Amino acid sequence: MAKDLKPLLEGMSGGATMANVNKSKFSSIKVVVPSELMISQFNSFVATQIDQIEQLARMNLQLTQARDLLLPRLMNGEVTI
Fold it and tell me: Which of 14, 40, 53, 59 falls between 20 and 30 A from 70, CA-CA?
C-alpha cells in the first residue's frame, strides 16, 4: 500500500525541515505492476460498481438541483406540502 511507503520515502529524504525525495531516489523504488490479464479482470469486476457510482452521482446532482429550486419556493410559501 502507498501508506507503507511513507517510512521508506522519509528515510530517503534529504531535507531537514521538509522531506524532499529527488527524482533519482524516487525512481529507485521498486513497484509491482499487475499483468494485463489481472488489470482486465479487475476492470471487469469493478465495472458494475463504477457504473452505479456514476449513476448515483448523477442522481445526487439532479436531487441537489431540485432542492435548490424547490426549497426557496417552500420557504416563501409558494409551494405547500
Answer: 53
Q: CB of 53 within 8 A of CB of 60?
A: no
Confidence of residue 31 (pLDDT cuts 50, 70, 90): confident
Grid look-up 431540485 returns 66
Cα–Cα distance between 10 and 30 in angstroms, integer? Answer: 16
Which pLDDT band holds residue 8 (cuts at 50, 70, 90)? Answer: confident
Q: What is the mean pLDDT of residues 71-78?
A: 93
Same domain? For 42 and 79 the reply is yes
Helices (H), 1-81: 6-12, 23-27, 36-76
Q: Kindly state the average pLDDT of the residues 40-66.
A: 97
Residues 3 and 16 in one domain: yes
- 75: containing domain: 33-81
